[in-house]
Amino acid sequence: MGLTHYLALAAALFLVGMAGVLIRRNSLIVFMSIEIMLSATNIVFAAYSRLHGDLAGHVFVLMVFAVAAAEAAIGLAILVEIHRLRRSVNVDDLNTLME
What is the arithmetic mean of pLDDT over 11-38? Predict the structure, then answer.
């Protein structure tokens, strides 16, 4: 597999994630779509890192994994609390966090 295959896979994954963020109204699916987009960026970082023989791309992949894990943990905690209060995780119902 060449670089173009990895880039095509990353582009497809990113488009799927972007469609999930833009189309779906469930907050959990929006979070999963963001994770798919972050995975697509990881594929691009790893592919270019391997192409150039540099380890910087792998370091960025680890940083993205750390950010994704933190985002998932904090985001899910916030969603659980919102679900307890409002009985819904629909994005349209979450227009304000002050209530």
Answer: 93
Q: What is the DSSP letter of 92?
A: G
21: nearest Cα among 41, 39, 36, 42: 36
Please answer whether residues 17 and 40 qualify as being in contact, where contact means their C-beta atoms are separated by less than 8 angstroms. yes
Q: Give 79-98 pLDDT, tens digit per residue.
A: 898 888 888 888 777 776 65
Rounded Cα–Cα distance for residues 79 and 31 (Å):
10
pTM of structure: 0.83
Quick one: 84 exposed, middle or buried, by C-beta within 10 A (0-12, 13-18, 19+)? exposed
Q: Identify whether the C-beta of residue 44 lies closer than 8 Å to the C-beta of residue 10.
A: yes
Assign 3-state DSSP to the chain and report helix, strand, coil percentages, each to 5.
80, 0, 15
Predicted pLDDT of residue 37: 95
